[in-house]
Amino acid sequence: MRGHNQFGGISLWPAVSLCVLALAACKPPEEPRYQPEADLAEKGLAVIEQAGCASCHEIPGVAWPEGRLGPSLRGFDDVGLIAGAVPNTAENLAAFLRNAPAVKPGSTMPPIPISPDEARAAAAYLYGIDDDV
Predict the structure, then answer these.
(1) What is the separation, in whole angstroms, between the first and last Cα of the chain?
(2) In the predicted model, what is the mean pLDDT of residues 29-45?
(3) What is the DSSP letter of 35?
(4) Cα–Cα–Cα angle for 123, 119, 84, nearest 5°?
(5) Are the CB atoms for 86 and 104 separated by under 8 Å?
(6) pLDDT grade, residue 98 (50/70/90)?
(7) What b-and-e string marks burial along 45-58, b requiring 16 or more CB atoms within 10 Å of the CB?
(8) Is 78 exposed, middle or buried (0-12, 13-18, 19+ CB in 10 A)?
(9) SS3 of 103, please?
(10) Which of 103, 127, 100, 104 lies closest to 114, judged by CA?
(11) What's the whole-model pTM score?
(12) Burial level of 73, CB count in 10 A (0-12/13-18/19+)?
């Protein structure tokens, strides 16, 4: 009989197979999604400090302020979606940093007056924060 083993018990293979597939789907990426250049990330920290990002967010490497209005950016590289809606890529993050409402309508984060190069540097800094070490 299908679904039962030769000993009359219920076969566990369908359940075991589903568990294995579910665990494989949850496997973390083997490599970080983006390896920022150290020089660019260093410039990004300066951009973040000048733009005042830490007035709304907790940002590792910025001692003060530690804003609580927006989410903590600790472990940003591991976040699946930017603002819960946009795939977490370096390009999307740079665009979001410059004009969040344009990237995700309804975002409460205001547009930040930084250049595209500054946004890429700030994104590099955020991706360079490695809380897994």
Answers:
(1) 51
(2) 81
(3) -
(4) 55
(5) yes
(6) very high
(7) bebbbebebbebbe
(8) middle
(9) helix
(10) 100
(11) 0.73
(12) buried
